[in-house]
């Protein structure tokens, strides 16, 4: 809200400033004001800093500051890092954080160089470098903020192979999780991947592949989207729109021009989201894989859920079911709330609610038109989505005591 942050000083109401800060910190990308035309370079840098902090996580950034200041990481901080990275022990946690920082900053630097080189033919060199850095950080952290103005995102580069490939790789590497990136880095030495890495990578690939085929099937004759592109552009467009719901929020075709079937399919992709320990949101690919595995095991009459020759503990299924059901209830509740406060079709409202919860940032045009209660509701949804369902539940739920007895087992009829 500082006068130097906006093009027209004093033009940004508090609730809009809060919404923008929440969207950036939660790496969502939903905006009530166009970033390029509303904010100055100073305002854009503030947004970029919030994206970087929100994407890497507070504890990771605190560790980076400790490294720079050559300060020793205390036992308490190591315990917090262990929890933040979902690790089973503190062994090697500082080494992992150091590797996370190197991966993140290195990938962002490479992406910035590639994008700057591509855009140097469209704009002055200094502007191209700035655009390259901003969009590389934004896309790696799955934020979706852009500087092209008038809510266009990357629609001007729908058929551009360099921009498409660079941005998609940034989104995917940021969305598969830092633990998986670390294992891939060590693969040449260890020649093995953990079960988590195998599931995360395979589900990411399957969702992107199936998503691209479905979007291409629904949209290749749509003159408002892929129908206006040549064959190469249609393939790039379908791939990009399949990758973006990994919680990135960028788009190369007009989301409002998509057919309703495609829009609803993107809602499903957004709900699944990225992988655990990443810059993305959603219920996560591993949760979805576990739910699918449980359904398959039940249909086949098997007691155990087996993935890559590993049997999964029933507790994992209960946790996955809890995350999925609570996420669904949250989206339903937010959609009902927005249907009350906003005058918009239900699919538009559902799209917005899911995008906020999964910290995606894709929009069908409702965000800039939100009422004040709608902005507050979406801000809270983005915050809850970025924290995570289980984190939120542990934070606000009652503390568990010891269970001194168990009730007798009962049976109910299912189906």
UniProtKB/TrEMBL annotation:
GO terms for molecular function: potassium:chloride symporter activity. The keyword NAD does not apply. Pfam families: TrkH. It is found in: Cell membrane. Its main location: membrane. It comes from the Bacteria. It is a multi-pass membrane protein. Keywords: Cell membrane, Ion transport, Membrane, Potassium, Potassium transport, Transmembrane, Transmembrane helix, Transport. The chain crosses the membrane at residues 45-69, 100-119, 162-185, 197-218, 320-338, 376-396. One of its GO terms (cellular component) is plasma membrane. InterPro entries: Cat_transpt, TrkH. NCBIfam families: 2a38 (TIGR00933). This is Trk family potassium uptake protein. It comes from Paenibacillus spiritus.
